[in-house]
Amino acid sequence: MGRLFVISLEGNIYSCKHCQTHFAIADDIISKSFHCRHGKAYLFEKVVNVTIGDKEERMMITGMHTVVDIFCVGCGSIVGWKYEAAHEKNQKYKEGKFILERFKVLGPDGSDYLGSQEAHVGGSDADDA
């Protein structure tokens, strides 16, 4: 293998909770109203320092989507997914966007999901992995 190329971000950064590799800046959050197996998840316009897995069809609360899981380039941890295609017309805005699961990343203040003030909500008004 070669040397790993990692992009460093500035500002309010979301990063890997295991290795602190930068993923995204808070300004690129589209929505904080998504949910996954572990609680809250955020929809981002852009994410860096991730690799993608294989495409798969996944049924979510909002319908069928084609997604790829995303992994940290630093440690290989799965941190969320990318929407490749939405089958429902009203879900097309998600295409090309990324979900980072709050449980798997550190927030801009260095807090993790369990140590933060965000309450775990049962149920979901958005997507579920």
Automatic annotation (TrEMBL):
Pfam name, any one: Yippee-Mis18
Keyword tags: Metal-binding, Zinc
Domain Yippee, first and last residues per copy: 12-109
GO molecular function terms noted in the UniProt entry: metal ion binding
Domain of life: Eukaryota
Family under the similarity heading: Belongs to the yippee family.
Name of the featured protein: Protein yippee-like
Organism from which the protein derives: Liquidambar formosana (Formosan gum)
